[in-house]
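Project outcomes to date are best conveyed with an example. Our students and postdoctoral researchers have been running inverse folding experiments weekly, and each run begins with a structure described purely in C-alpha cells. The record below, which covers 179 residues, was selected by the lab manager from last quarter's runs and is presented without edits.
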C-alpha cells in the first residue's frame, strides 16, 4: 500500500492539481512557462533563471494539511509532545497552509501564487471551507494580497530560548466559512 504522505506522492498530487488548474484556465504547459518567464528548453540555475543548466533546480514548494498542528513535522512531536496532530474536521476546522518557499532568483513570477491556488483548490475539494497558516513576517504581505486576514501574532519556539515570530492568518474559501 503506498504511503500517501510521502514527499513523492505529495509532489505527484501537487503536479496533478497544477495540471488540472492549468487545463481549467485553458493554458498549455508552454504558455504557463512563458507567462512565468521560464524557458521550456532549459532548467534554471541557482544563480539566475536565465542561465541554462543540466541540473534541475527546485524553484518553489508548499502544501496544505488536514492535521491540527499549525506547523512542523514529526520532529516537533518529540520536542513538544503536547502538540495536537490529529485530523481536522472539514465541516468545522480550517485546513492548514504549510511551508511555502520560492527560490529568491524566481521570486515574483507567480510560482507561490500558483502553488497556493493549487493548495486552496485541493483543500476545498476535500471539503474544507476555511484555511489558516502561520505566516513568517516576510510572507504576510503576500498572503494578505491573496485574501488572507491577520488573526493573531505568535512565536514559534526554536530551542535555546530563540523564537520565530509568525502571524496566524486565515481565509474563507466558501460562502459558509468565516473567520
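After processing, the design step wrote out the following sequence:
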Amino acid at each position: 500500500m503506498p504511503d500517501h504522505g510521502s514527499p513523492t506522492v505529495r509532489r505527484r498530487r501537487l503536479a496533478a492539481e497544477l495540471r488540472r488548474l492549468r487545463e481549467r484556465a485553458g493554458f498549455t504547459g508552454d504558455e504557463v512557462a512563458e507567462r512565468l518567464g521560464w524557458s521550456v528548453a532549459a532548467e534554471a540555475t541557482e544563480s539566475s533563471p536565465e542561465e541554462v543548466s543540466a541540473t534541475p533546480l527546485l524553484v518553489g514548494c508548499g502544501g496544505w494539511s488536514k492535521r491540527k498542528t499549525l506547523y512542523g513535522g514529526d520532529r516537533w512531536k518529540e520536542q513538544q509532545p503536547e502538540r495536537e496532530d490529529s485530523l481536522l474536521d472539514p465541516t468545522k476546522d480550517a485546513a492548514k497552509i504549510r511551508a511555502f518557499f520560492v527560490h529568491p532568483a524566481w521570486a515574483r513570477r507567480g510560482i507561490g501564487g500558483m502553488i497556493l491556488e493549487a493548495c486552496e483548490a485541493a483543500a476545498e475539494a476535500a471539503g474544507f471551507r476555511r484555511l489558516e497558516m502561520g505566516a513568517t513576517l516576510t510572507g504576510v504581505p503576500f498572503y494578505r494580497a491573496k485574501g488572507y486576514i491577520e488573526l493573531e501574532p505568535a512565536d514559534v519556539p526554536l530551542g535555546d530560548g530563540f523564537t520565530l515570530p509568525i502571524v496566524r492568518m486565515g481565509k474563507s474559501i466558501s460562502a459558509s466559512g468565516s473567520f
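The chain has one domain: 7-172. The longest helix spans residues 7-25. The training component of this project remains on track.
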